[in-house]
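Submission checklist for the structure archive. All mandatory fields must be present; incomplete records are returned to the submitter.

[x] Identifier: CYTH domain-containing protein
[x] Organism: Stephania japonica
[x] Residue count: 202
[x] Sequence attached
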Amino acid sequence: MEEVEVKLRLPSSAAHQRLSEVLSPFHRRTHLQSNLFFDTPSARLSSNLAALRLRFYDSDSLCVVSLKSNPLISNGVSRVQEDEEQIDPSLARACVADPSKLATLDSSRVLRRAREEFGCGDEGFLCLGGFRNVRAVYEWKGLRLELDETQFDFGTTYEIECETGEPEEAKRAIEEFLKGNGIEYEYSAVSKFAVFRSGKLP
């Protein structure tokens, strides 16, 4: 299915702190996420604009495996084909320790797709590494806002995201809110995965 998100980048920790303060009445929960990415030795996924991710939540209380492909981001709106499902966290950790196990995990629909559609099964997988993310979730004016502090090995970025079927309307509302509270922002031009792969902050 297609995932459509508004993505606005915040320029500093001060802007992130200011936004978290003005959104605090709408706060619902905060997740600590660990994101790890995988590909084949010959990069069959990334060469086809696809990414395989294991995302662990809150000290491994939950893990979600996702396969994303055909990403497009323009004017602060991201569109990507995404398939995801929950996976047993202990099983997922075993795959992190030995990525070759990903090629034999028949219980996962997403991993079967990665093998069958991208031909990953015969090569096996390797772990590319990843990044950590602190995600605060807010319910604001009928929108689910996710405020991210993403910690890469080479620095930290800040972003607000909103998954929505009406991206232009949501973007307009969020922009008005940010401007009304004097919070600087710009349109995100690349995904977190692209930032991770580039090895430098945007």
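[x] Structure attached
Curator remark: The CA atoms of residues 20 and 147 lie 8 Å apart. DSSP finds five helices and nine strands in the chain.
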